[in-house]
Amino acid sequence: MRKPLVVDYADLMGKTILRTFDGAKFKCVTIQYAKDSEVLYVSILRCYEFEHINTSDEYACALANKAIFIDWDNFFENYVFSEKQCETMSGKNHTNNLIKANWQHIKKVFLQDFKDGSHGKENQS
User: Fold this and answer.
1) Distance (Å, rounded) from C-alpha 81 to C-alpha 13?
2) Starting at the edge strand that comes first in sequence, how are the strands of the sheet with 25-34 ordered?
3) What pLDDT, in 10s, does the model give residues 37-54?
4) How many Å separate Cα 42 from the centre of its chain?
5) Which pTM value belongs to this model?
């Protein structure tokens, strides 16, 4: 079992994300891993999509049909994490600068988590 990161999976899930060129608001909904290319993706949904989600089936459908997948390494080219209070899984509200400063370390640990099958397990905060 690994040590918790300064910013971990649960700290990103539910975090509000802003697109820098038009101010559109999104929520971070999952981290995806492409095994064949070993690429991580940040999956986001527009905030207004959540107004129409009332069940887990509707959430799964929105994620499958409307999520935007952003290559981890290119995330900060067009997106930032909101500085406003967000409803994350962990309840923590880290700043964009703290997340950005730890981004590559988070990636390294998440890649290892996906490879060894421990991603999203209980003891990761």
Assistant:
1) 11
2) 68-71, 39-46, 25-34, 16-19, 79-81
3) 989 999 999 877 667 777
4) 5
5) 0.84
